[in-house]
Input
Amino acid sequence: MQGDFHYYATYCAAVLAGYTHDESLSVCHAAQLVDHCSRSFLKKVGGPDAAATTQLQLELMDARTDRLGLCDITRIWASFHFLPRDLYAPVKKGSKNYKDKYRLICGPNGDLLVETVTLAKDRGLAAAGIAMHVLADTWAHTYFAGTPSLVINNTGYHFYELMPQEGGGFARRRVAFSHNPSAKEDPEKGVYVGSVYQSTENSIMNLGHGRAGHLPDYSYIRYAYLPAWGGYREIIKDNPSDYEHAFAQMVYALHWLRDGKEAFAADTYAEDVIEPHLDTIRGIIDRRQTDASDDWRTFGERLTGDKIPDFDMDAHVAEYRNAGSMSKPDTFLGTFFDAAHRQKSMVTTRIMASGSRLAGIPPRKMTKSTVHAVEIND
Output
């Protein structure tokens, strides 16, 4: 997903879950910051490397793809953007390396999703925002894995958009992928940008949904393709349905984080809460546009009557920089860094416990005195 959902739609979900305008802004700021908290950002603000939640394109271009480098990449992308659905999924054939990668395939309502939301309980608004980013991406990034892998993440010639027809049903239109990163996408003509095919299994080009471009990030689209891991059987991805489920699940999860007494339950949605707004929500999700920010913003401002500012990744930087050494952990960014480290450590520990070494060992523990130390490494 991208900023329209992680920022504006998350704001709307927080409001519907009972958060105030200011609280909702903190939640959605953290949710969107997950896509910006790179090592470059951390170096700029003086934060810990262990809290990195993403890698910029320039960082990925320079990333090592030896075993240690691949572990570093997997720790970040599997923890925050491609949360594995089932680390113990049965796989009848293939090498151990293939089975380990297969078990990193992302999807909603897995055990790790329950742990992710539970981990954020009573840890503040920044932790809630991080959990909502991870939750939302389990829906958008289903069928892709947060580790470089041609066999898992590749897409081929057989890739079709399913176009709704006025009389019902869908017509197929083959997606034409451009590999020029500066090219403009044209949804009306079915032209989208995806990464260049690389036959090397561990090429950065084969990370996540790069081969499918931003299609998983667009709420309106439905598409069909033939992944190798699926035995070249056609898989259909229905983003409108998945995004609606993601939104309803965020409302439930945020309400649970605020007031929940029982254990967090997977496959549970605040359908009753969103029902009065369902026509508006579906209208936003179904509209053919690559950025639905304006629509989600309008909806959010109608819910509260307050203005939603544009996302500013530097909004909390001054507070963090100006805080004393021992008070930095209590700032917004300090709580964000702590929650990010906890999430990464939890996911990496679970991957390792499953018998896989693809994510390496968990990052070192951060303490009050090291939460702001640039020298900490994953």
